[in-house]
Amino acid sequence: MNQQRLLETFFDLVRIDSESRNEKQVAMYCKEALEREGCTVDIDDSTVETGANVGNLEAELKGELPGKIYFAAHMDTVAPGVGIEPYIDSEDMIRPRGETILGGDDKSGVAVIIELVRTLAESNKPHPTIGILLTVCEELNLLGARAMKSRTFNGEPCYVLDANGSVGKVITGAPFHSIFKAHFSGVAAHAGVEPDKGTSAIELAAKAIIAMDLGALSERATANVGTIHGGNADNIVPDSCVITGEYRSFRKDVLEKVKSQLKEAIEGAVTGSGCSVDITWHDEFVGYEISEDDPAVVAVLNAAKKLRLAPATEYSGGCSDANVFTAMGLNAVVLSTGMTNVHGLTEHLAKKDLLDLSELCIEITYSLAP
């Protein structure tokens, strides 16, 4: 690994504006860097689905040994991500100047993947084939990964470099995630003249929400109502109200139990009222749980120990591209990159974490070689 080259690559990447749907310049930078090291690179045609100005990038570095290992990251950032100028402070922390994010989420991952390829290409040591997945629009509800065309994966390990926390931590589980929308139809009436002739759709929605089990539930499940919209004016009993929400669980059977309770609360709110409710349900992401004994996880933990990092496993209540890749057939886990205070103006990344992550990925690659 070339430490200075890695730092320069990271600085190059964060200086390229790439807020979601504007990742083309970053994709071209990555394409050129990877092709220079002998990778085959393909950019897909997912722009119709994502609205981005470029597609997802998939690359491959052929290895001399059997097997294939995937590394993944996303090329987009949140706002404010235009005009980022990074610097290293007196404590060896990489920070942004001015009123922007740093973009370590997830250009730390992208930079490390490029350095991994460069290191392997320069080495005489045999290695498995390396697959690379760099997505667009991850910050827009994983839109890029979800727009990738179906292909056949066979349980290959996939390391998604996209979690905060100390380098050496691996996310071994993330929940199934579903959403719902309930449209309550009431009866409109003048609120001051004849309110008794109306039935408030907002009141029906409130009754449903009160009957729901929300927040942190048992068996690592959660439920939430996120929005409520209804009514047209203060002097009209509202005849329409829409609520939206989500529910998550690490287990599919528990997810269905949560759904049943939500459905019972929603439908119960209109029972006997003479009014109706229309509910739509949508499964957003497939959850995953991987054992600590899985070879993909063991490789991370052993590599972290060897490098004298702090190996750890953790479940995440959030979803990432790993959820999508798991559904596509990869054995995906998420690695912490050291990024801190992401999505904010105080975002920073320790120089040591960037270097450690690069060493970790190199060690993982060689440890998985047959």
Give an overview of the whole structure.
By secondary structure, this protein is α+β, with helices and mostly antiparallel strands. The chain folds into 2 domains: 254 residues, Zn peptidases (Aminopeptidase), CATH 3.40.630.10; 110 residues, Alpha-Beta Plaits (2-Layer Sandwich). It is 32% helix and 30% strand. The protein is built from 10 helices and 19 strands. The strands form 4 sheets. Strands 1, 2, 3, 6, 7, 8, 16, 17 and 18 form a 9-stranded mixed sheet that branches. Strands 11-12-14-9-15 form a 5-stranded antiparallel sheet. It has a 3-stranded antiparallel sheet with strand order 4-5-19. It is elongated.
- β-sheet strand percentage: 25-35%
Rough outline: elongated
Main sheet overview: 9 strands, mixed
Say which CATH homologous superfamily of the largest domain is assigned. Zn peptidases
The tally of helices reads 10
- The poorly predicted ranges are none
Quaternary organisation? single chain
